[in-house]
Design brief:
12 helices, 5-stranded mixed sheet, about 45% helix, Arc Repressor Mutant, subunit A
């Protein structure tokens, strides 16, 4: 198969039959054009032109090859265009995986700042508490992960960035009996129907310990939550007079609280998130780098 320069030289000479005109169209000297034609004939394995002084015409095999060469040239142009589109998309799109606690608290402010700094930036956000972040990073499925990596094995190929620990909050309808208590405990809170995203091992261990670390506490945690969903848009619809308590972060419940129908609860003892961001070491493509920098500014 012909490479780009010999192919271009062949097509121009086939069209003009003149070395001088073909060289001008190709943007090379006559001598360079002659070398490209010789290279083209070497690559296809047969003579393409009958060379005469002042005139070069296609051989029989050259004429047979001409439509093949035109098709090849068209395919090369299409391939170059598609490659360029992929290159531009790869540089402009950041693929982010995250746990359910982080979209409002970290992803949204970092994304807003990144889009101001890099107007062409686009993002794909995959929210789930059941992701395998290190594997997804290593496989290139995501560029950055933001979530709890407490029970994730360490790897030298992954760069980590820690965020400040913050207390997890709980929300309930203003008519909920917990709001009538001066200082509700976690035990008080979890005696009511509870809804939350998926609770992985870290959260179950933290809650069990906060409930006293007893076999009874572990048994209680094993039955939680009453309703499980990683979709906070759905979970906040449960904050009605029916008595559900939903766990999350203050930002998650901001709109519901603003209605005056929902209020936050901070029980004792407090339980805290353990959130970090992770990316492949040395990964610096444009959109991902800008997003990472804006996440980093949230740690200051």
């Amino acid at each position: 198969m012909l490479s780009e320069k010999p192919l271009s030289a062949f097509l121009h000479l086939a069209e003009t039959s003149s070395f001088q005109q073909a060289a001008k169209r190709t943007g090379v000297s006559n001598a360079s054009l002659s070398r490209y034609i010789s290279l083209a004939e070497e690559q296809v394995g047969f003579v393409l032109f009958d060379r005469r002084r002042g005139n070069s015409t296609l051989t029989r095999k050259g004429r047979a090859y001409l439509p093949v060469a035109k098709k090849l040239y068209s395919d090369l142009i299409a391939c170059a265009d598609q490659t360029n589109r992929i290159r531009l998309e790869t540089d402009q799109v950041v693929h982010v995986g995250c746990g359910p606690l982080t979209p409002r608290t970290l992803i949204q402010p970092a994304l807003s700042a990144a889009q101001m700094a890099y107007p062409g930036l686009r993002a794909r956000i995959d929210v789930s508490a059941r992701q395998t972040p290190i594997e997804m990073l290593e496989n290139g499925e995501i560029d950055i992960y933001v979530g709890d990596l407490t029970h994730t094995p360490e790897t030298e190929n992954i760069e980590l960035m820690m965020f400040e620990k913050r207390a997890v909050m709980f929300a309930a309808h203003i008519s909920h009996p917990l709001h009538k208590m001066d200082n509700p405990s976690l035990k008080d809170l979890f005696s009511h129907p509870f809804a939350s995203p998926h609770l992985h091992k870290h959260w179950r261990a933290v809650i069990a310990q906060a409930l006293g670390g007893t076999p009874e506490a572990a048994e209680k945690v094993a039955t939680m939550p009453t309703i499980e969903s990683d979709d906070y848009a759905f979970l906040t619809t449960l904050l009605t007079e029916d008595g559900f308590v939903v766990g999350g972060m203050p930002e998650t419940f901001a709109e519901a609280v603003a209605t005056g129908e929902v209020a936050l609860i901070e029980p004792h003892p407090r339980i805290q998130w353990n959130i970090c961001a992770a990316r492949r070491a040395g990964d610096t493509h444009s959109a991902a780098q800008v997003f990472w920098q804006k996440l980093q500014s949230l740690t200051d």
